[in-house]
Amino acid sequence: MHEKREYCGLFGVFGHPDAAMLTYRALYALQHRGQEAAGICVSDGRHMRRHVDIGLVTEVFKPETLEALKAPNAIGHVRYSTTGSPSVVNAQPLLIQYARGQVGIAHNGNLVNAALLREQYEGEGAIFQTSSDTEVIVHLLANPRHQARSDPLGHVLTHLQGAYCLLVFFPDRIECCRDPFGFRPLVIGKLPNGAYCAASETCALDIVEAEFVREVQPGEIVTLSAQGMSSRFFVSPGQTRRAQCIFEHVYFSDPSSDVFGQNVHQFRVASGRQLATEAPADADVVIAIPNAGRCAAMGYAAESGVPLGRGFTVNHYAGRSFIMPTQHARDLAVRMKLNVIRETIEGKRIVVVEDSIVRGTTTRGKIGALRKAGAKEIHMRIACPPIRNPCFFGIDFPSRKELIAVSRSVDEIRDFLGVDSLAYLSLDGMLKCAKQAAGDYCTACFSGDYPMPVDTQVHKFILEDKHQMRMFQDERSSSSGDGNEGRVEEVALRGRGA
Question: Which of 181, 296, 403, 456 lies in disulfide reach of 272, CB 3.0 to 4.6 Å?
């Protein structure tokens, strides 16, 4: 159903007898961040094992699976692929055997220099098992030159460019890492038994009844171990500007979560109020496009004085349309997922509040359904500015040529959608709703102001494309295949591995 796709969710806990079960519950709370694959990796303090597969959390883990993963320490991951295909080989957490033993890793974000690093390491003889940018981190960690450093992990992180929150899992500890720009959220909680945990959002802390302790700071590594919690920085605090992803507030995070020190629901309500101030409409009722538009619609109705109504019901058992292979199939899935409440719509002038528009194709289908239900007028209001630039830091927006706001003016988008009027929230208006200073957020998808240099040719399949090109070039002289299919319990670094 969604034109923009979630990235990933992380959870880790150290020192709880039911670590795997707690991780399962937390991943369930984070399911909105990734619906392609899920996995849990556990440690008894000496040995590590994992279970990963394609599917939702409830599909991947059964009671017997969780019982087999019983251990006091665990990390978990729900995935939407921002680099690499949605295959079980790319499912996380990765579990790797290298010279110093086992290491597990779970990643939320996207590395903009992953292809360059991978090409360098493959040139030195390293063999990669996945097409995920995350595996690059482990190869750096295995490098003897990096291992010789006083803080190998901290040294490795200085080589990464892009967005990353990481849970790096060793048999005796979990290292919780956040990139120096702070693109993605990562928080620390404390369980009733005194054990510490880490999560992408506070909604995961709530479901396991953990008390919020604090955020992991940009450029910080927080260690969870038998000694409790400790911290170190791999860059000096304030060395880089903050670039917290504003789209966490606009769309991705759960409304119940506090992200970047602000409740998501309150931000969205404030954005709806600001939108009503900037773009009022003569109407009889305000409705939301479920689900992310609901909070903004509440704010719009409250500020405008136009009553809030319910225009759609949601069929929660319909398939996930974003994985459908064709536009026709996606449109059909949208019709199956959303049903119009005709009594709210017929003969009315309606304001339709949506969180954002990317391609516009699914939005146009929803507007068409409202027209068929007898809407007299439709005034579309978008609770963020037009998206005119691709994201390279973990949101799977399409390429620039597919973004509707690049090729069309606001009036042309209005005509494409088939609405009577269309207005977006201004960039300044959106930032006014945020708690922190405007300069602390990444707004590149709206403004084109990227906080670091990016290669505009980067896309989610770049690692696979480069691999396939090399295979094509070498096929006359050699042919080989891993047979690396199905569930992978452990991946070994072979060749030089450094």
Answer: 296
